[in-house]
Specification:
By secondary structure, the protein is of the alpha+beta class. It is 28% helix and 30% strand. The strands form two sheets. A five-stranded mixed sheet has the order 4-1-7-5-6. The protein has a two-stranded antiparallel sheet with strand order 2-3. Bound molecules: magnesium ion. Magnesium ion (MG) binds next to strand 1 and helix 1.
Length: 157
């Protein structure tokens, strides 16, 4: 049986933090505010996977009040989720994502993100896609470059 899940995440962008998306550091004067490293792309992907498997959501599994997750790389969280997913006998078919970020441009980082995420998810590079859009200077903080939104959809069997 095939199953589908969606994920969505938003993080504020502030000076003095690294911008990490899909496990890849992106050169930027601002980065994601968050309890973990704030990797909004991985957070959206985790929620899409959990949704497809009916296994809850990222906030329940990794509460932002838990000190053990402070500053943690979201790649570690994704690896833990993948372990549980495999234990239940699920396999990722493909994951498609969209990053909405006013600046910087994501183009130069897409290949590296795809390769990193495909490895973490245990799929071929043709089974993970990252697309990027700006907010066309609209939608408040998104359009002024003070926030990032990521969306993900995941198919499993
Ligand atoms: Mg998040």
């Amino acid at each position: 049986m095939s199953r589908i899940g969606t994920g969505w995440d938003i993080h504020k962008l502030v000076p003095g933090r690294d911008l990490v998306l899909g496990g890849v550091k992106i050169e930027s004067p601002k980065g994601c505010l968050g309890h973990s490293d704030g990797d909004a792309l991985i957070h959206a992907v985790i929620d899409a996977i959990l949704g497809a498997c009916s296994m809850g959501d990222i906030g329940t599994l990794f509460p932002d009040t838990d000190p053990q997750y402070k500053g943690i790389s979201s790649t570690v969280l994704l690896s833990q989720v993948m372990d549980s997913v495999r234990e239940k006998g699920f396999r990722i078919v493909n994951v498609d994502t969209t990053v909405i970020l006013q600046s910087p441009k994501m183009g130069p980082y897409k290949d590296e993100i795809r390769s990193r995420m495909a490895k973490l998810l245990g799929v071929g590079e043709d089974c993970f896609c990252v697309k990027a859009k700006t907010a066309e200077h609209m939608l408040g903080e998104l359009g002024t470059g003070d926030a990032v939104v990521c969306q993900a959809v995941c198919l499993i069997d």
